Amino acid sequence: MDGVKVKVQKTQIAFSNKHNFAFVSFLPVRKAKERPEVYIVVTFGLGYCVESPRIDTAVEPYPGRWTHHVLISGEEEIDDELMGWVKEAAVFSAGKR
Asked: Cα(68)–Cα(59) distance, rounded to whole angstroms?
């Protein structure tokens, strides 16, 4: 992904081109019984809602802009499907005005 900027902070890594398009967060968003003991959250934005059991939550903060959160509790979960969504988010972000 050419032209991607990475900003590393204490609790988050942000990926951007024209706009932020993906984040990795190290702090739990909230505790829930069905969540793993240890996990990170990968967040990305797309122009549609992804329908997948891997998506923990998806919200539409603006019409036609969906924010998705995926919980990752093992490195094997960072796979082609997840990276495909992140790459698609980068293209979506680059196309925004």
From this structure: 7
**Order of strands across the sheet with 12-16?**
5-8, 12-16, 20-25, 40-46, 65-72, 55-62
Burial of 9 (0-12, 13-18, 19+ CB in 10 A): exposed
Pairwise CA distance, residues 69 & 61, whole Å: 13
DSSP state of 18: S
Instruction: State pLDDT tens for residues 14-43.
Output: 999 989 999 999 876 666 667 788 899 999
Which pair of structure tokens corresponds to residue 24?
């990795």
CA–CA distance, 58 with 85 (Å, rounded to integer): 13
pTM of the model: 0.88
Contacts of 65 (CB under 8 A, 6+ apart): 45, 46, 47
CB 33 within 8 A of CB 56: no
